[in-house]
Amino acid sequence: MAARRKKTKPELLVTGAAGALAQQVIARLREKYKVIAVDFREQVYLGDDVPSYRIDVNKRGFEDIFRKHNITGVIHLGRMIASEENRMRRYNSNVLGSHRLLDLCHKYHIQKVIILSTYHVYGANAYNPALIDEGAPLKAAELTMDLIDSVELENLANIYLWKYPDLNITVLRPCNIVGPEVRNTMSLLLSSKYCPVLAGFSPMMQFIHIEDMAEAIVAVINSRDHRGIYNVATEDWVAYQEALDRCDCVKIPIWSVPPIAPRLISNMLQLKSFPPYLLNYFKYPVIIDGQLFRSTFGFTPKYSLDEIFSYYRNLKRRR
């Protein structure tokens, strides 16, 4: 009787593996897939079954990972955010690094690629429509140089999406991702006791729980061919200042926006920097329409706004 051949799992490469979202995604995929974790910040240990590498995508040795493993899919979550590094380092990582990653995906015949983008690419201004769908122009780069890397990353993904359809590229533009272990600016604001607010402004905002976002990514990787660009958001939104109230934050009004405002906010939140362009997102609403993603992938978020805000309320009470 012939020995039963051991079935091998498909292999997925996940960038940004040290981040909270990536680890939520890996936890959901490791049973069905062999996951290879990569991050330029640190080598994370996620178990003996998850090979982990600390390496920059732009480094020569990065291609060795493709040679060593039989990778069939890539989930690119390793986008450097504006509060982490300066504009030049973000451009090198987010644009040039992603360019190299996509070249390698083409060279090694990767069958599915997911790229995490952001709703910030639409830009924040007073003339935004009430609900922004995926066909809306990306005006962020016209409004601020600080978001050029985000828009360029999307342009790059678009080129590869249509030039190499076999890559099955899916670009996701989520609203504000919040929840446990999330260290972006919005999550830090909601978890802070004192929060600055621009007097006279309280734009509508959307929030998605980190576990729902992880489920959204898993839904894409488990789907067949649904390449394209999708907003990812719930159907609920809330005014920013109401969100702060529901998180038990003490609001500190700022009556004008002095040039030192970003530095004051970064000091309050203990960030390396608070990008000035984010101030516009606290003045003007950028509400995205996530209907296309929900209907295409059968996605239903589990966490309500009440559940999201109760996490931040309880976080403060435990301190």
UniProtKB/TrEMBL annotation:
Checking InterPro entries in the record gives: Epimerase_deHydtase (IPR001509), NAD(P)-bd_dom_sf (IPR036291)
Native organism: Hahella chejuensis (strain KCTC 2396)
- UniProt pathway annotation: Bacterial outer membrane biogenesis; LPS O-antigen biosynthesis
Top-level taxon: Bacteria
Q: Where is the NAD-dependent epimerase/dehydratase domain?
A: 13-233
Q: Name one Pfam family in it.
A: Epimerase
Q: Using the record for this protein, list the coiled-coil segments as residue ranges, or answer none.
A: none
Which family would the database say this protein is a member of? Belongs to the NAD(P)-dependent epimerase/dehydratase family.
Under the heading Gene3D superfamilies, the entry gives: NAD(P)-binding Rossmann-like Domain
The protein's name: Nucleoside-diphosphate-sugar epimerase
